[in-house]
Design a protein that fits this description.
There is one protein chain. By secondary structure, the protein is α+β, with helices and mostly antiparallel strands. It contains seven helices and 15 strands. Strands 1, 2, 4 and 5 form a four-stranded antiparallel sheet that branches. It has a three-stranded antiparallel sheet with strand order 3-12-11, with no helix packed on it. The chain has a three-stranded antiparallel sheet with strand order 6-10-13, covered by helices on one side. A hairpin with a 6-residue loop joins β11 and β12. The longest helix has 24 residues. The protein starts with a helix and ends with a helix. The chain binds 2-amino-4-trifluoromethylsulfanyl-butyric acid (MF3) and cobalt (II) ion (2 copies). The site of 2-amino-4-trifluoromethylsulfanyl-butyric acid has 13 residues, from β4.
Length: 309
């Protein structure tokens, strides 16, 4: 249960002309005074008013976890079927049919005009690759990014797979991208800040000679596909919003073996590395708990790291 949110409530005397304790900068009388529905010292209300962040209740967490289980089952299904000769559209069909069969909706389909049910990003494609007639060949890497809506809850996760046997660069970039996500999850906890997550990723990836994409970020998720806050994969320690129990957001570092610059193709979706170098990504939806974090899309990152070492 998300008890910490309630435990932090206290009764304090605040003068009507004092600054409002919700942090708005306005006088208390012009802000939260007399508004019992928006108790100023309730963390959940404060995070919603200040940042637009919707802290999740236990029933919501259970719903997102259930959607998350379907997402990782979908990724497992794809991983078992992927092979040279398939097209990215074949993966779209697999994901679409599996999602529907499990009474869920693919969140990508028609999202802001996206025409398919999943993103498939091959080699130099950073993210938002549109499934089509590209044929996978041995030595490729492909990121499959699945977001499902189950009983109105969204969960979002992705993995980068090897097609056939990987070469040394493919192994390296998958290894560093997976390690970057692991580094972030290992420090995500109440009291840490959004900037600490970005720092952990940037420090890990750049320390291994790779670069971090700036234009796409992690995001709150659960009630909607993309909710506040934004979660950059670069940053400074101690900066940004403090993490509190009940926050649910993605961490999804996109790591390039070359430079960090990107171009978006004429389809207005596909982001590719400007230097055509390999890019890899791993994403999970995580919950901040009282003591750390829990993945709501839990797949084994260590086995990815081992297989790419
Ligand atoms: N799943 C992506 C993310 O991690 C978003 C894809 S949006 C789409 O945020 F429209 F391209 F599907
Ligand atoms: Co995401
Ligand atoms: Co995603």
């Amino acid at each position: 249960m998300v008890t910490g949110l309630v435990m932090k409530q206290k009764v304090l005397k605040v003068g009507r002309n004092d600054p409002c304790p919700c942090g708005s900068g306005k006088k208390y009388k012009k802000c939260c005074a007399g508004n019992q529905d928006k108790a100023p010292l309730d963390i959940s209300g404060e995070y919603h008013r200040k940042y637009g962040i919707r802290i999740k209740q236990q029933k919501d967490i259970d719903g997102i976890r259930k959607a998350g289980q379907l997402v990782i089952d979908t990724l497992d299904m794809v991983e078992n079927k992927i092979r040279p000769g398939m097209t990215t559209d074949d993966i779209n069909t697999l994901v679409h049919e599996f999602t529907i069969k499990h009474h869920a909706t693919p969140a990508c389909l028609n999202y802001k005009g996206f025409p398919k049910s999943v993103c498939t990003s091959v080699n130099e494609v950073i993210c938002h690759g549109i499934p089509g007639d590209r044929v996978l060949k041995g030595g490729d890497i492909i990121n499959v990014d699945v977001t499902s809506i189950l009983e109105a809850y969204y969960a979002d996760a992705n993995k980068t797979f090897f097609v056939g046997a990987p070469g040394p660069d493919a192994k390296k970039i998958v290894n560093v991208a997976a390690g970057s996500l692991k580094a972030a999850l290992s420090i995500a906890a109440p009291g840490q800040r959004i900037g600490d997550i970005g720092f952990a990723i940037q420090d890990y990836a750049e320390g291994r000679g790779c670069s971090v994409v700036r234009e796409f970020v992690g995001h709150g998720v659960g009630f909607e596909f993309h909710e506040p806050p934004q979660v950059p994969h670069f940053g400074r320690q101690g900066e940004g919003i403090e993490l509190v129990p009940g926050m649910v957001f993605t961490v999804e570092p996109m790591i390039n073996i070359g430079g960090k610059k990107l171009n978006v193709l004429d389809d207005n979706w596909t982001a590719v590395t400007a230097d055509k170098s390999l890019s890899a990504q791993f994403e999970q939806t995580i919950l901040i708990t009282e003591t750390g974090c829990e993945s709501l899309t839990p797949y084994d990152i260590d086995s990815v790291i081992e297989r790419s070492s």
